[in-house]
Specification:
This protein is of the alpha/beta class and 236 residues long. The chain contains 4 helices and 12 strands; from the N terminus they run E-H-E-H-E-E-E-E-E-H-E-H-E-E-E-E.
């Protein structure tokens, strides 16, 4: 199976531009015979959207962008990030979600379960933790999809809190054979090697390959360094 890792550089709130970036990458991935194309966290709106999330028109346009994108996805499956309303009556109004797109529609949904509120992050202000992570089967392989903070579960990561839930354990219990992480992880000095060490540890601990897709480009004071990678089940 061929999988495309598409580390796009979105413009926050420019749904037309971001959608065209994603669709161009999908066309290229499909032309190369890829079965799956992977995009970063909140790839259709850009990260971090901050208080734009408090505008109903912004959220509505984001949902229309997902439907427009999904309607053009044929002959390949796609993982893309967006926000959607919290279906539960309690909690924050929105969830940081990821959809599996294919056959002209959104086939499955899941979301981010661990919401950071330290350093530059303030996600609990806007989002409710998702009830479960996205999981799906493609060409006989079972995939589990996490979003950024979901994989920062163990290790000497300064400032990362304990959340009381472990999405990886839940996905492993569902038979996950390949772990995918969609990220918008900003650059800080030394973070690249730290991410690599973490992904190697996860692959070795769970004995499965890890596919990591990160946003790239600048957003105001934040720099997203990409450095997407694949780590095999032996931690290489």
């Amino acid at each position: 199976m061929k999988i495309a890792i598409c580390q796009t550089s979105p413009i926050i709130g420019d749904f037309a531009h971001n959608g065209s970036l994603v669709m161009e990458a999908i066309w290229h991935a499909r032309s190369q015979g890829c079965a799956l194309a992977i995009f970063p966290e909140l790839s259709l709106m850009g990260y971090p959207p901050k208080d734009l999330l408090e505008r109903p028109s912004f959220v509505s346009e984001n949902l229309l962008a997902v439907e427009r994108l999904a309607s053009g996805v044929e002959g390949i499956q796609v993982l893309a990030g967006f926000v959607e309303p919290n279906p539960r009556a309690r909690g924050k109004a929105l969830m940081n979600s990821v959809g599996l797109l294919g056959g002209g529609k959104v086939m499955k949904r899941g979301g981010k379960r661990r919401l950071p509120t330290y350093d530059v992050f303030d996600e609990a202000r806007y989002f409710e933790p998702a009830g479960e992570s996205l999981h799906f089967e493609l060409e006989g392989r079972r995939f589990g999809v996490t979003v950024c903070e979901d994989i920062w579960t163990e290790g000497p990561y300064d400032g990362v809190p304990s959340y009381g839930i472990d999405p990886l354990e839940d996905l492993k219990g569902r038979g996950m054979e390949v772990l995918i992480n969609l990220s918008a992880s900003p650059y800080t000095l030394g973070k690249g090697p730290l991410r690599e060490a973490m992904l190697k540890d996860l692959s070795s601990r769970y004995h499965l390959p890890v596919i990591y897709c990160n946003q790239v480009g600048g957003q105001d004071e934040l720099l997203f360094d990409g450095r997407s990678m694949v780590v095999d089940r032996a931690g290489r």
